[in-house]
Amino acid sequence: MADQIQQMPKVQLHDHLDGGLRPESILELADAQGVTLPESDPKALGEWFFRGAAQGDLPKYLEGFAVTTAVMQDEESLQRIAREHVEDLSRDGVIYGEIRFAPVLHTARGLSMEQVLEAVLEGVRIGSETTGTVARIIVCSLRHMDPAISLDSAKVAVQYRDRGVVGFDLAGDESGHPPADHNDAFQFLRQKNFNITIHAGEAFGLSSIWQAIQHCGAHRIGHATRLVEDDTVPGDHRGTLGEYILDHRIPLEMCLSSNLHTGAVTDLKAHPFPRYLREGYRVALNVDNTLMSKTTLTREWELARELFSLDLQDFERIAINGVKGAFCEHSLRKTLIQDQIVPRFRALQGDAS
Ligand SMILES: [Zn+2]
């Protein structure tokens, strides 16, 4: 089945634009812009990002982003990187992807958040047109930043809702930065009937997931790895937060390799993903950051197959969960499931039997 995984129709909900650049592109852009890099050859640069990220600590994992965002400060570069990102999704067998990034991190050389978004949306449009992969944007803000920036970012996200922006996310270092600090932004988004996802339960425990859902109105949770702590009797009883997430079909955007690299888990074999999948949670697999975690979605699916003995039916369930959790319009979600995922998995099933 390994060679089939690349061909399987996949859905990507948790994918950072600034964590998924091609090393070759970083080198070319840095050269043109006079930005100094720690390495001068693509392979060595890719390894540098991976080495920096895989230290079992979220703040250390996040350090590489200062380098990627340094070469993403003008419209041409942003457009190119967004286009390449969609091309890479297509090569990975992704039929629908939501790409996230924080516009405010790209305003250091004078661009407005609107200019940043327009450049990225144009790159996504070109990439989608040439590959057929459908992609949408999620606007991020960062936990450690001034909550006023989150509110501004939320306003820009809503402003572009008809141009391909489908959601808002709060990312960054979780510990010591509770999501409720940014409640003005979340209140605004809820008033506007906008979609919210929040990174929670990665570097911090249950209270972070609970606060994201019950205080901030998150419709999805990024990671939720530590939801597993909601067991009164481990493996036997589900706590009320887990029950709520299961009953309300709250999608969990789970990421394997990245969780190992940030220290959210110490052993992938013990990752809660297969348990959530079997218990019927709306879980999907994601890359988080292809550059920092040296991965692709195909690789993450292969990893899940090797670690948890998943079969074709499991992968179809994961793809459907991804679509059901997507922030795009309902009619597109229906088309993705009925016209792509179901028939393509049926064909693969036919090949296998
Ligand atoms: Zn993330």
Give a short synopsis of this structure:
With 353 residues, the chain is of the alpha/beta class. It has helices spanning 2-5, 23-33, 42-53, 58-61, 65-70, 75-91, 113-131, 147-159, 183-191, 206-214, 240-247, 256-262, 273-279, 297-308, 312-325, 330-352, and strands spanning 10-12, 94-101, 134-142, 165-171, 196-200, 220-223, 252-255, 283-286.
Description:
- 50% of the residues lie in helices and 12% in strands.
- The protein is an alpha/beta fold.
- An eight-stranded parallel beta sheet has the order 1-2-3-4-5-6-7-8, sandwiched between helices.
- It starts with a helix and ends with a helix.
- The model has no long low-confidence stretch (mean pLDDT 93).
- Residues 14, 16, 171, 199, 222, 288 line the site of zinc ion.
Q: What characteristics describe this protein?
A:
single chain, 353 residues, alpha/beta, TIM Barrel, 8-stranded parallel β-sheet, binds zinc ion
Structural topology:
Blueprint: H1 2-5, E1 10-12, H2 23-33, H3 42-53, H4 58-61, H5 65-70, H6 75-91, E2 94-101, H7 113-131, E3 134-142, H8 147-159, E4 165-171, H9 183-191, E5 196-200, H10 206-214, E6 220-223, H11 240-247, E7 252-255, H12 256-262, H13 273-279, E8 283-286, H14 297-308, H15 312-325, H16 330-352
Parallel strand pairs: 1-2, 2-3, 3-4, 4-5, 5-6, 6-7, 7-8
Helix pairs in contact: 2-3, 6-7, 8-9, 15-16
Zinc ion binds next to loops.
**Average predicted confidence as pLDDT:** 93
By CATH, the topology is TIM Barrel
CATH architecture: Alpha-Beta Barrel
| Net shape | globular
Run of helices and strands: HEHHHHHEHEHEHEHEHEHHEHHH
Say how many strands there are. 8
Strand content: 5-15%
